[in-house]
Amino acid sequence: YREAWDKDKTQISLPSDTPVMLQSKVNALNISNKHYQKAWDEAKAKSYDLRADAIPIKQAKASRDIASEYKYKETHEKEKGHYIGCPSAKEDPKLAWAARAMALQNDRLYKKAYNDSKTQIHIPVDALSVQAAKECQTLVSDIDYRQYLHQWTCLPDQNDVIHARQAYDLQSDAVYKSDLEWLRGIGWLPNESPEIKRVKNAQELLSDNVYRTPIESVKYTSVVDSPDVVLAKTNAEQIS
């Protein structure tokens, strides 16, 4: 039923010179990117023709010369050493001002007068402070405190040298303790030494045999002039 209608819908023919068709063609050309860049693409396909005296080329060269450090300093390098209006570099106001500024900034030159004045101190010799300082230096001086003896050269066989050696040997701690070092560890004491006698007396005091002596071993002898014997003799004579 719709087959004929569907075929008719797809077969539409409009005249090409109608205002709507013309307007649509113009709009298509306006919005076409290819048509918009057609002239630029044709120009790119051709070779460039730029002259050396062209304005863009001159402008680029001028910009490059301005930005170049060599060109920037070329005038300064040429003018070095050529001073106009001054016979020498010292008389140039700008150089003199720069040297003055550098001298002011220099710490050594700034302190030169002060350092020179530090060494020039004038103090009277008889000032109280100087005298006190000298006395204090004498008191604390190690040279005056220690008076070293002279290094005399003596013969080894002189009496003074022999006597000094004997005195040194007597005072020497090594010689003084040599006998003790030799006897150390031996553990020997002489028989008549105080230590031996003290031990013997203590042994006799603590000995049980001496403390408890038997009465039989003691020899008694009667005393002739005792009171008992004298009384006995007197009684014997009276009774006789």
TrEMBL record:
Q: Which GO terms describe its biological process?
A: cardiac muscle thin filament assembly
Repeat as UniProt keyword: yes
Pfam families tied to this protein? Nebulin (PF00880)
Its domain of life?
A: Eukaryota
UniProt keywords (A-Z) are: Actin-binding, Repeat
Q: Which InterPro entries match?
A: NEBU/NEBL, Nebulin-like, Nebulin_repeat
A GO term for molecular function: actin filament binding
For this record, an example GO cellular component is:
Z disc
Name used for this protein in its record: NEBU protein
